[in-house]
Amino acid sequence: MTGWDELDRFLRTDPRDVGCDEALRLLHVYVDLILDVGGDEAARRYPGVAAHLVACGPCEEDLQGLLFAAQMNAPPESEEDVR
Ligand SMILES: [Zn+2]
Predict the structure, then answer these.
(1) Is the whole-model pTM more than 0.70?
(2) Which of 13, 24, 30, 34 is buried deepest, with most CB atoms within 10 A?
(3) Are 24 and 59 in contact (CB under 8 A)?
């Protein structure tokens, strides 16, 4: 009965969900982790944040925005210490 599980997950907050305040507080750390070790590992280290981002559209959008900004700001490896 996976349909019920999905409905249940939709109706009920994930118990691991840390909530908006905590997720936003950790968001920059989480973004660094995604860029550093990848999204899977980031989700493993912060399951509460990952659970919240799945459940909360606005926070997920904030994550995408931060990820985008971080990638814009990160210089390509080749520009590092060319001197
Ligand atoms: Zn949220």
Answers:
(1) yes
(2) 30
(3) yes
Ligand 1: distance of its center to the CA of 75 in Å?
30
pLDDT digits (tens, 9 = 90+) for 62-81: 999 999 998 887 666 655 55
What is the 15 CA–ligand 1 centroid distance (Å)?
14
For 76, residues 6+ apart whose C-beta sits below 8 A from its C-beta are: none
Coil, strand, or helix at residue 16?
coil
Torsion angles phi and psi, residue 74, rounded to 5: -75, 120
| Structure-block tokens of residue 58 | 């606005």
- Rounded Cα gap, residues 41 and 47, in angstroms: 10
Give me the residue spans of the domains in the chain.
Answer: 13-74
